[in-house]
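Quick log. Single chain, no ligands specified.
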Amino acid sequence: EPHALRLTPENAESLFAPYDLILDGSDNLATRYAVNDTCAALGKPLISAAVQGFEGQLYVFPFQNPEDPCYRCLYPDIPAEAMPDCRTAGVLGALAGIMGNMQALEAIKWLIGINRSQLFIRYNSLTHHLRAAAMSFALGCPSHPGYKKS
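-> predicted structure:
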């Protein structure tokens, strides 16, 4: 179902509400944080993929338990320093395809009930080195579903 509009923090909740699983392949950090924050608030699982230069990253954020980490647990805020955009750093089309296929595989596994746990993978396309890393909830993370404001 196409949505011909720009995703914003203001419209994300109404856009995501009818769906069971959210996939993010956005090309900017503001959108990536808006998607994360909305999925965390709604308790919607999120599968996110990103590429920059020759490296790809894949995240699965279940948002099913209070201890499930989120994107802000790893990267609390949008970096103040300017990060290179796709025009500057470049995006290798084949790498975007690899990460998109990995993202689709994780979505299929999620939808059929196989391996619904958190996941963080870094892929280096120059060496074909794939590294999975553990993630953990960051205390005080404001977008985390288990976070309570005092």
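The two ends are 39 Å apart (CA to CA).
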